[in-house]
Amino acid sequence: KSDPSRQHDFWGHTEPFSAELLRELYGDLVRYRRLVAESCDLLIAEGYLLPLERQQIIGAAVAFARERGLS
Predict the structure, then answer these.
(1) Cβ neighbours of residue 13 under 8 Å, at least 6 residues apart?
(2) For position 1, what pLDDT does the model report?
(3) Measured between alpha carbons, how far is residue 44 from residues 12, 19, 57, 61 in Å?
(4) C-alpha atoms less than 13 angstroms from C-alpha of 3 in its C-beta half-sphere
(5) Most exposed among 22, 29, 40, 57, judged by the fewest C-beta atoms under 10 Å?
């Protein structure tokens, strides 16, 4: 069964990045969270995301990145 609190359930098939690649791309979880929040804000401004979904999306993305080893 799909779990809507998990980021990877929002789309079809995904191949999660390794912890090493996540660190190379984003540095740390604080920077990753900021980048996700900025992306959400842009999507809200463009009308693709509802403001009430922002925190859920950020939380799910950060939790998934943490599970994959980003700290």
Answers:
(1) none
(2) 43
(3) 22, 29, 12, 16
(4) 6
(5) 29
Give CA separation, 53 vs 4, 18, 41, 68, in Å. 12, 27, 11, 23
Two structure tokens written together for 26:
């984003």
**Least confident span in 6-10, 36-40, 59-63:** 6-10
Residue matched to tokens 């900025």: 38
CA distance 53 to 67: 21
Centre a 10 Å sphere on the Cβ of residue 23 and count the other Cβ atoms it contains. Answer: 16
Element (DSSP H or E) covering residue 1: none
pTM of structure: 0.79
> What amino acid occupies position 37?
A
